[in-house]
Amino acid sequence: MKSPAAIFCLLLLVMLGSSSINAAVPLAATPPMGWNSWNHFGDKVDDKIIRAAADAMVASGMRDAGYVYINIDDTWQGTRDANGNIHPNSKFPDMKALADYVHSKGLKLGIYSSPGAKTCAGYEGSLGHEQQDADTYAKWGVDYLKYDLCSYTKELKERAGNDPDKSRAVMIEIYSKMHEALAHTGRPIILSFCQYGWQAVWRWGAASGGNLWRTTGDIEDNYNSMASIGFSQAGLSPFAGPGHWNDPDMLEVGNGGMTPMEYRTHMSLWALLAAPLLAGNDLSSMSPDTRNILLNREVIAIDQDPAGRQGDRVYTEGPLEVWSKTLADGSVAVGIFNRWTMPLTLDVPLARLGFNKGVVAGRDLWAHVDLSPIHDTYHAHVPPHGVVLLRLRQTVQ
What we know:
Blueprint (H helix, E strand, L loop, with lengths): L3 H21 L8 E4 L1 H4 L5 H13 L2 H4 L3 E3 L5 E4 L5 E3 L6 H10 L3 E6 L16 H11 L3 E5 L4 H8 L3 H22 L4 E5 L17 E3 L8 H9 L13 E3 L12 H13 L4 E3 L8 H7 L2 H7 L8 E6 L2 E7 L5 E7 L5 E6 L9 E6 L4 E2 L3 E2 L1 E6 L4 E10 L1
Parallel strand pairs: 1-2, 1-10, 2-5, 5-6, 6-7, 7-8, 8-9
Antiparallel strand pairs: 3-4, 11-12, 12-13, 13-19, 14-18, 15-16, 15-17, 15-19
């Protein structure tokens, strides 16, 4: 029989072991997946819409595919009381009850604020109330904060002028302040920096406490906007990894401004980029095409690969681009994109994708079919504004 001292030591070792294991798994170990209210509902968002989104997330199968965050964007804020505590406006009568409802569905709740005195839409920001707001979010049960620079740009100009180094220092200060406030609550809350990629945020975002940071301006629901943003991410792969991700903005899939093929391109490129997958459509009225795109488990697996590597451009040929991403099991995800308005073909040498001479096995992730063994070159037929997305692995040297 063990002595009380021995039992105590054993329990201590177990506790320390558990802490070490938990510490080894960072918040946002893979890119966050979920939904955000802004792209479809804008300032019309309310409690009913958020509850309906949670219901639809479950009923559609999206939760089971990995989409877990239900994120409220701007316009939820009411006024502050005499003690400076923020309260939601009449559209959100009980934020704690809403969080409880979302959690009851096996989902998580996200919210929105700004380091400025006001948000983009002119509602209450967090300037001077960072710890109060963080404590309030924790009390409500919030799991994710989108923190939008927006109205703070006036203060940024006053404090830094046109000096990029001062501007970067100010942004590091204000984002670190909210990170520290969230950490002080003791609740794990993902922190998303929304500051449009200014001052090369990918270089300092992780050190300032960001779990993800926007690398671009706002996306719009059209091919030119999506392609301009997505393909401009080339070269940013060294700055992403478990717990800290480059964010090229939310998904527009299903909002109607692009063709199904263009939305496939959108989803494929974001998956290769290890980008957060935050849907922005009306989840309660998805077309079959939208469901098939958002729920493609093989494409989601590329985004959520546990190695946490961001893909990058391999080469271009006119309007054709080849991107690749090495996965945890040693296979390679390859996207062959056609940015032109007519169908094009491309012969892709396997050597350019890192394969030695021999036989490569492959799978088409949109057609859901295994390919015939590939020798030396893959012959791609790519639709206009389209993509061929493959998962390849060496079988014979």
